[in-house]
Amino acid sequence: MDLSRKLAAWLGDLVFRGPSGEARVTLTFDDGGVPQLLVVVTPRKGKPREKLHVPKRFQPELADVAAFQLADKALLDLFAKDFVGTGTKGGLELVLGTEIGPPMGAAFAIDEARGVAYLGDWGFLRKVDLATGVVTSLALGAYPAVREVRVGPDGAVWLLADRDSEAPEGPYRAPSGPRVTFGVLRLGPKAAMDPGALEERFVVTVPRNDVARICTCLAIARDGSMLVPDTEGLALVRADGTQVRTFSTPHGGTGPSFAALSHNGKLVAVTTGVGQIEVHDVSAGKIRIERLEMDEASSLVVYDNGTVDVGTRAPNQHFHRIPSRGPTLTVTDHAAHYAATPPGENPAFVMVAMDSELRQRDFEGKVLATWPVLAGQRGSRVWIGKKGVYVHTGRGVLMRIDTSADPAMQSANEPPTDVGASDPTMQTATEVATDSGAPDPTTRSADEPSTDVGATSDET
Question: Domain check: are 274 and 377 in the same one?
Fold first, then answer.
């Protein structure tokens, strides 16, 4: 019930404002633990309207589930009417919903420097003002299915999307044809949210049988260089579009390959089969191979110092931090998505996005704090910023959470007392961070060097 009580506190603090007026939501529990949710809408003209939501059936052991179901239904109704919720006491600072209809996914990007967020919905790119919650929409035309959203160093917005020009059957996607087209689209930093401003930069078309060998990932470095899909699998291109080289990304396991680009643009990490990640030093022409128990990845990050973060989807849905030297650190939560603070940052922690819960762990596996996730039953992505933690759910709900407002975070923000010294790139992480207290046997040991197979063989 702790999470439900926190949900009730959040809802009680939120003020929802929309074109038709203002709304408040109150979640309470009777003596038997049965949740009741009251929505009061005060229109700009006229009397307030009340609506009480109660469970049709109630099982005491599923009290949390019932509370979240009531809250999700009520909030999605408000979001469909363009209401935006803002908090007044810290915690949940902003919550809004933009995906009305069949959910596409949870792709999003946050540009804290410019105070905006970009969300990928079916058929639309949404621009959200993080101060006011005002949403501006851009119709994507022939590229409705957004896979990734990125913001470049100059503020330009980049999208990776599937082309689909067939008329849909009902509200869902049309039957797929024999060939598949992926497009990388750009919206300039000063361009209006207008379809005419959207530029088609890279296009890849392959037979549907060959989709598995295409790495459908998009990444941007500080110098503007990018990773984009290519007929060979993946390509590294300079800011001016000149191709540097390609990477073969063979399909192995139960899902497609993942790729990541370091901020300095010098390292490329690619999943290349069951339990294998290749880290390419592009300038030196070398490859470092890392192995762990993994059929498929759900996320991949590579840092300038060579550290790799990977979230696995199968068989265990774990998070692994793999430094270039030293032990692999593992968080075992069976979650769809993870995000972590960069190596060397203090405090060091991992955000774990569960269905209806956002969980914060340190690298020893200790839970530091938990927060509710609204309308998150279909999976959520999470991103850690300087001004808060952001969650975008598969049902199109964006949340910004001020984690420092949680009393449980006071100890997390203090300097750690046990600092691992075996790896200078992991100054804030302990030597071993598996739930069992021992290194993961599926990875190389701390004393075992990374496999270096010399120069790459697939340069173009």
Answer: yes
Do both 263 and 410 map to the same domain? yes
CA 224 to chain centre: 21
Residues in the chain: 460
Residue 272 · residue 278 · CB < 8 Å? yes
332 plus 414 within the same structural domain: yes
Do 188 and 235 share a domain, yes or no? no
**Domain membership of residue 13 as a residue range:** 2-85
> Domain total for the chain?
3
Strands, DSSP E only, in 188-295? 198-207, 219-220, 226-230, 233-237, 243-248, 259-261, 267-273, 276-281, 286-291
Residue 318 within a domain: yes
pTM reported for the whole predicted model: 0.84
Q: 315 preceded by cis ω (within 30°)? A: yes
How distant, in Å, are the alpha carbons of 2, 250, 287, 341 from that of 277? 39, 12, 10, 21
* Residue 340 · residue 323 · CB < 8 Å: no
Q: Which amino acid is at 310?
A: V
Position 237 in a domain: yes
Q: Which of 319, 273, 320 is nearest to 296 (CA)?
A: 273
Ordered alpha helix ranges (H), 277-436? 409-412
Cα dihedral 56, 60, 65, 71 sign: positive
Same domain, 198 and 259: no
Count helices and strands in the chain by DSSP H and E runs: 3, 34
Say how many CA atoms lie within 13 Å of 140 toward its Cβ. 29
130-149 tens-digit pLDDT: 999 999 999 999 998 899 99
Paired tokens of 460 = 């173009």
Say if 366 falls within a structural domain. Answer: yes
Convert the pLDDT of each residue in 354-387 to its tens digit: 888 999 999 988 999 999 999 886 678 999 999 9
Q: Which of 85, 110, 136 is the last residue of a domain?
A: 85
Please state, as a whole number, how many other Cβ atoms lie within 10 Å of the Cβ of residue 164.
21
> 459 lies in a domain?
no
Q: 107 forms bridges with which residues in the sheet? A: none
